Amino acid sequence: MYVLQQFLIDQLIIVLNGLSRASTLFLLGTGLSLVYGMLNFMNLAHAAFLPLGAYLSASLIRRTTGVVGDSLGFVGLFVVFLVVLLLVVPAIASMVGLVMEQALFEPLYDLEDDYHLLATFGIILMMEDSMKFVWGGQPVSATAPADLLGTFSIPGGTYPWWSILTILITAAIAGTLYYFLEATRLGRITLAMAEDKEIVSVSGIDTRSIHLKIFVISVGLAALGGALYLPGASITTGLSLEFVILAFAVLVIGGLGSLKGAIVASLIIGLVQAYGTYYIPQLALAAVFLLMAAVILVKPTGLFGEIDA
Amino acid sequence: MLLELAGLSASIEGVTVLRDIDLSVAESEIVGIVGRNGAGKTSTFRSVMGLQTIQGGSISFDGEDITERETHERKRLGIGFAPEDRRLISNLTARENIEMALWGTDDGTTSVDDRLAVVLEVFPDMDAFLDQPAGKLSGGQQQMVTVSRALVADPNLVMLDEPFEGLAPSIKRDLSESMSTVREDLGTSVLIAESQISQISDFVDRLYVIERGNIIAETDDPATVSDDEELMEVISGG
Known about the structure:
The complex is a heterodimer of chains A (309) and B (238). Chain A has 309 residues and is mainly alpha-helical. Helix content of chain A is 76%, strand content 3%. In chain A, strands 1-2 form a two-stranded antiparallel sheet. In chain A, strand 1 and strand 2 (157-160) form a beta hairpin. Chain A is globular, with a radius of gyration of 20 Å. In chain A, 45% of the residues are buried. The mean pLDDT of chain A is 91. Chain B has 238 residues and is α/β, with parallel strands linked by helices. Chain B has a single domain (3-236), classed as P-loop containing nucleotide triphosphate hydrolases (Rossmann fold, 3-Layer(aba) Sandwich). Helices cover 33% and strands 27% of the residues of chain B. Chain B has helices at 41-48, 71-77, 94-103, 112-122, 139-151, 169-184, 222-227, 229-236, and strands at residues 3-12, 15-25, 30-34, 53-61, 64-65, 79-82, 157-161, 189-194, 206-211, 214-219. In chain B, helix 3 (94-103) runs parallel beside helix 5 (139-151). In chain B, 44% of the residues are buried. The mean pLDDT of chain B is 89. At the A-B interface, helix 7 of A face helix 2 and helix 3 of B.
């Protein structure tokens, strides 16, 4: 009986860890997928906005805690943290992304795909070094928001409420994105651009303006992924390189340009990584790539490899 | 003149596809361009919409030089374009495909329903499938949606690139008959491209013949082209 109970508890923790990991991957991968869908532009540097969001969060959380930490109660401080992590950090990262789009990415759009990969990988390295210059090479953490929420008890241990909050916020964002693509004019145009950008332009729509809006939203989502990731983990240099591979796996497994694909692929990869880490930690990452290879062999366009919501 | 191409040359990836083209469309005029596949019809239309690399010459619309204008700006100035192969957005409904041509300029003063009603007068059969995904429509239905998308924003000029391609004879007839409605009821000029002169000779006011990127004939009597064996041989690619 005890063995069965422990097994079920282990499964619960693995699934929650998988969903938490999937949340981060979804917030990163969905923006990459949307931008790729619209422009056929594989922006590997998108992954660097996740650590940028995490580093910005670390600075702002420490500053916030130092300035107002003692004067606000639990609710007040929690609300301030949420505003910082959900709004301020994505907004700052989006502004950085907007400047980078115009200065670095836009000149690349008309080049061949090979140049996109090479140039944006170079930009990742540049961003990594810039973050190292600003925040240093030592691990950075800011656990105040997670500490504030604390943990809940499960037989034999505890689990952090922050991970549950991350999963819930990401689920709400996935729902909002689905509504955005299905029911708003900008969303419908985004889907149309993913299928035929030229026709959207011929229809009188300023596709450059639409692209910039989606780019900014995508960067904001990636930074939000970093902001939600930080309170539960310390970050260090090289995080972009770890996540770019996983974000790429989300695209390949889910199908390029598909929100549904990004959701399903993030869940699969998150769970595979969580189970792999628990049972065969040496092969946790390899399992993801075996899965990616299998999907490519069986369905080269990915599980949802058509343009849809 | 509503549309005027003067000495227009254009290229695709460095290969010249249009050479020194002079072409015009007056208000309320229906003008045809005939030529075999690859002669330069689509390149002419794409140049007018700003989708082609221009090497020389100019494009004027309603008295304004639009050669350097962005594609969406040209549409907003009053040029509707129905490309060959229809190119509908398969995941949007027929209604959304049509209304998309109003989204870029929607300032709240234009009633989408009113504009939709106008194109439904031209293609009343469309009412039955407006809310179906465009990817699931038949070829004839898709063509109606494509032409409607080009017309719905009340353009001064609509350009139709091989609109009869792949249509059943009855739908071709309906589409031909709608041309006079477009001109007379909507007051829209039409520039229409075809590879078969018989498709358009009944309703065009003037006709250009294009071959290898050059305009080789222009006439206001399409019958003279049909009677010219040499020209017909060029058009048919024989």
